[in-house]
């Protein structure tokens, strides 16, 4: 009965969120680092990760995935971005008695050190830094065996020199699994919240993200295809443009211990177009290896076209 009440409350929150916020994100939001893929596995699939199960990093995309964790797991990742920027994430998930599944996550972004200048552009000899941080706690459970639901509460912090900003947000997620058909569907609302302290006097919106995902293990093949539509709430000039921010990921599962991945991010590819050249912008690839039954290594390479590329690595541990 309690599960049904929680599920009903989450579903009502979904509807309320959509009614209030659909098509509302037309300006550049604050804390945009929340949209950067935190894990190597998810990044190699171009962020098409909403339907993934039994992975603690999946809570960053859909908290409903928490209730698919089979054993307690921890994962830590690090990435190199452009212009010497560094970022990383840590996640942990486990089941607690019969209450449900819980997860904690940390995500950070370090933009490096900058030279301070006066209003005329003259350097003063002083430097300052900039960084972002997110702390999250999630809960997941299931109802009717196939319907998983979850919620994550997040505290977000950002600092640029002496200017600070903070916010609270929640993620809601649903995950419907069809094991016999090796098919899964997901729906989520991420970053639904408000800025509680602004950099200056004007409060900014958070990067609200309404997402839908589907994945399918192709019959008689080692391939799992994943498709995610993100930013469905953002305003567009034409209806079809609401589906512009989609990602496709393909995982080639050679064994229980080795897999290779390819991804395509349509929005990134369009945004990274320079002149008439696109190159391989928006494409990603990666590799996953599990060894000794308890250690997991993931690597990803993401192309930003002529701008450059990013690398991520993750190490995970599975507790007995």
How would you describe this protein?
The chain is mainly beta. The protein has a single domain (2-115, 125-318), classed as Outer membrane protein transport protein (OMPP1/FadL/TodX) (Porin, Beta Barrel). 10% of the residues lie in helices and 51% in strands. It contains 3 helices and 14 strands. It has helices at residues 2-21, 40-44, 266-271, and strands spanning 73-80, 86-96, 100-117, 123-143, 147-160, 163-178, 183-197, 209-217, 223-229, 246-253, 258-265, 283-291, 295-303, 309-318. The protein has a 14-stranded antiparallel barrel. Strand 2 (86-96) and strand 3 (100-117) form a beta hairpin. The protein is globular and about 65 Å long. It starts with a helix and ends with a strand. Residues 7-26 have low confidence and may be disordered.
CATH superfamily: Outer membrane protein transport protein (OMPP1/FadL/TodX)
Instruction: State the CATH architecture.
Output: Beta Barrel
Gross morphology is globular
| Structural class category | mainly beta
Largest sheet: 14 strands, antiparallel, barrel
Order of helices and strands: HHEEEEEEEEEEEHEEE
pLDDT averaged over residues: 88
Helix content: under 10%
Instruction: Give the domain tally.
Output: 1
Annotation keywords:
320 residues; 14-stranded antiparallel barrel
Short description:
This protein is mostly beta strands.
